[in-house]
Amino acid sequence: MLHMMKLAVGIRDIAHLREVQAGRLAAERTLRHLTRSFPRRTAEILDGGSMYWVIAGAMVVRQRIPDIAAAAYEDGSACAAIHLDPALVPVAGRPTRPFQGWRYLAADAAPPDLAAGSDIVRGLDKLPDALRRELQELGLL
Predict the structure, then answer these.
(1) The pLDDT of residue 137 is above 90
(2) 69 is in which domain, residue-wise?
(3) Helix (H) or strand (E) holding 131
(4) What total number of domains does the chain contain?
(5) CB 89 within 8 A of CB 113
(6) DSSP letter for each residue of 31-66
(7) In whole angstroms, what is the distance from residue 44 CA to residue 63 CA?
(8) In this structure, what are the phi and psi dihedrals at residue 46, rounded to the nearest 5 degrees?
(9) What's the pLDDT score for residue 107?
(10) Region 24-37 average pLDDT
(11) Averaged pLDDT for residues 62-70
């Protein structure tokens, strides 16, 4: 199994990602991320892989990737459509440096999921971004 990671540009926190994606899902009836480069390791990703989103400098949430297909942008140029499961799964925050595009993420390097009822998860999306980042850098989140 192999995962992907991507910067969620313009997204403030998990709640904002949820809101933006709900709007896209309502408008398009499918949730997908279009990218210029087609992943060469698609079979490994489709074997249970997820998209790990980096928000405000930390990898904090993931979504399962059920499919990757050839697609086209509005101008007709070729791209890849990475289909995403609508469920957002919070993960143990990990500071992540900025990068361009997307990156592969080995299964053993991926942060663990946070338990649904965990005290760590409750209220996490309500913390100010600067405080959440500092707590993550200290390894407290």
Answers:
(1) no
(2) 2-137
(3) helix 129-137
(4) 1
(5) yes
(6) -EEEESSPPTTHHHHTTT-EEEEEETTEEEEEEE--
(7) 16
(8) -75, -5
(9) 96
(10) 92
(11) 98
